[in-house]
Amino acid sequence: MDLLVVGAGEIGRWVADTVSADAAPVDATVAFADRDPAVAADAAADRDARAVAADGDTAHDAVCLAVPMSAVPAAVEAYAPRAERAIVDVSGEMTDALAAMREHAPGLERASYHPLFAPPRVPGNVAVVVDEGGPTVDGLTDSVQAGGNDVFETTADEHDAAMETVQAGAHAAVLAWRLAADPVREEFHTPVSAALEEVADTVTEGSPPVYAEIQRAFDGADGVADAAAEIAAADDEAFAALYERARGDREGRDRLE
Questions:
Q1: Domain of life here (predicted)?
Q2: pLDDT digits (tens, 9 = 90+) for 91-116
Q3: In 3D, which of 115, 180, 179, 202 has the Cα closest to residue 152?
Q4: Do residues 123 and 143 lie in contact, with contact meaning Cβ atoms separated by under 8 Å?
Q5: CA 125, 128, 133, 134 torsion: positive or negative?
Q6: E-assigned strand segments in 2-160
């Protein structure tokens, strides 16, 4: 398989490494395209790959879009003509991505993948919606699984709704806690606050534009803000009710698992 990875950042490089790994069941070669040619050249130089022009006309068996969520629809339109068998994305938003693929690549295999981790923390869970299956998408999925990742199927609606909680809401809650927190000596930390410190360190080691894209793409932060305001304003009785509601929500999540 000849795969064009559009976007030579961390996720694009993870895709390239995953499909070309020794354990991958598909014999894949990789080309990188990026709006910054130097970034594509750097990614290619670090592995057995090549760089091609972002505005070129090279043809490939498959195209994988590893670009910001807001750029996916335009990227689908631009790169679908360069895909001969399949077009997929790993952006993290599925509804608009798949709609663009249906419009601009109706004759191709189509899928949207979302690695639910940052590349330094591989392997992990990878959500996928296969909109139009076939051997090329199957090969990509098999390669992701061969890398030790747990690939699970979902729908675009279910995925994007979940991202409101697990990304937009979670990030907003963690960042708000870090911004509101005063520095304390390590000895003062409780198990809860120590865990929050660790999570906040994880969130803030990433890229601000990536996290900003998530907040723009998905609702969730407003709900966290509203809940915090409820807690801050609650008297004892209201607080107890909120606490029990949170306990019930936790038990409901445990049943889902």
A1: Archaea
A2: 999 999 999 999 999 999 999 999 99
A3: 115
A4: no
A5: negative
A6: 2-6, 29-33, 49-51, 60-65, 83-89, 109-115, 125-132, 150-153
**Mean pLDDT of all residues belonging to the chain:** 95
Chain centroid offset of residue 14 CA: 12
Hey, what are 36's tokens? 């910054």
Work out the number of other CB atoms within 10 angstroms of the CB of residue 140.
27
pLDDT value at 255 more than 70: no
pLDDT tens-digit readout, 153-176 = 999 999 999 999 999 999 999 999
Residues facing residue 89 across a β-bridge: 65, 112
Contacts 24+ apart (CB under 8 A), 233-237: none
Which residues have a Cβ under 8 Å from the Cβ of 150 and sit 6 or more positions away? 123, 124, 125, 126
d(CA 43, CA 106): 30
Q: Which residues are 110's β-sheet partners?
A: 87, 132
Q: What is the pTM of this model?
A: 0.91
DSSP string, 194-253: HHHHHHHHHHTTS-HHHHHHHHHHS--HHHHHHHHHHHHH--HHHHHHHHHHHHHHHHHH
Residue from 67, 122, 106 nearest 89 by CA: 67
Distance (Å, whole) CA 240 – CA 251: 17
